[in-house]
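<derive_structure_tokens>
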Amino acid sequence: MLEWIRKHPSASKLLFSFAIGVILWFCPKPHGLSPEGWKTFAIFTATIITIVLKPLPMGAISVLALTAAVLTGTMKLDDACNGFGNSIVWLVVFAFFIAKGFISTGLGNRLAYGIMSRFGKNSLGLGYGLVATDLILSPCIPSVTARAGGIVYPILKSLANVFTGDSHDPKMASFLTLCAYQGTAVTSAMFLTAMAGNPLIASLAASHGIIIGWGDWAIAAVVPGLMTLLIMPYLIYRLRPPTIRHTPHAKEMAEKRLKEMGPMSLQEIIMTLTFLMMIILWIVGHFIGISATTAAMLGVSILLLTRILSWKDVLQEHSAWDTLIWFGTLITLACALNTSGFSSWFSQFVAQYVQGFHWWWGFFLLSLIYYYTHYFFASAVAHISSMFAPFLLVAIALGTPPVLAALLLAFFSNLFTGLTHYGSGAAPILFGTGFVTVGQWWKTGAFCSFLFIPVWIVIGGLWWKVLGLW
């Protein structure tokens, strides 16, 4: 048996994942949970384990998961295809095409060399540069997917190309990718307008008499947020150190390359104007009824009309189509967990076990559970929709100050997206670079959670005491 496993590692991993799914499937369902909810949980768990073990490409695993869901009657075929029509999934796909335009016109290299000329004395500085770029944009772009995919990703890809091409340092690309992604989790937590789910949180809190304004959110988040952004790149630098750590001549090299590139070409100008148009629409779109996905679709259409992108370029962007399959599948399964009643059952299950705790310890336990259950969600908005209100009510019933409870759960609703490569719309875009393996991504996400949670609870707690929130 051991010999067969050594000779067929992929088959043995697939069989192990299948066995876990079968065992869960035939285990007695918990009291109060529907049979559909338990079966969906079994399929979702087996899918995630298979993705982590990676016996097959993620796209292939996703097709197998949907096939299992349909053949077992857990889902109808139409329901199994719902995730592929999700607007966030298509925003992710369009982001890949936009990045292609940045690279093909040379604008991406121009932006990359611009960042290198300012932050490029060492690799750590480049990581801070990407994080700073996202922080500046986060208050005014309410879609983290648009921000990460349309702005940060093209710059990251161009920086990675510079180092992997000229200096042969693929570890630099891995470091920058992880910095950029974990940075989006923190910046999204810092402003009410930095992530699409944040206004939903404010609305849910208001329905229970807790009013959180833009300024209230920002002031409460500024100290733990900036502290996290100061520490996080260095933590990732220690976890995933690039081969080239000091780049003393990068500033001079970047300035030289910028001079060699000369003035912007017509294609770069068109790409820049299209880029600015998308940023403006991402900022004001919710006031004029244009979604982030529609703005990205318009941008891609302009690139096609101006021949910056050809249809062949679109077809050959394999990462985009691969991401459409696996991310759409995870969205489908995660939504099914919610609609089948699994999420609400789990919230009630947790609530009965924290009764009788002192409010501080009870709320701390609730917050941890709320944070780490994001492994079972492929959308922060879905997680918020199903679990924020029940957990908030339980926290208040324990005696937690209402505003404190709402704000900490709100911040965790963004920070927990750093856990997985499907934790938010930004995740599959940056994971799609191929510079970071699933194992490295999850390991970094776990270690960053060990930073995020103490900083926001301890440093944040002291700051909120100063603000009089508890």
In short: The radius of gyration is 22 Å.
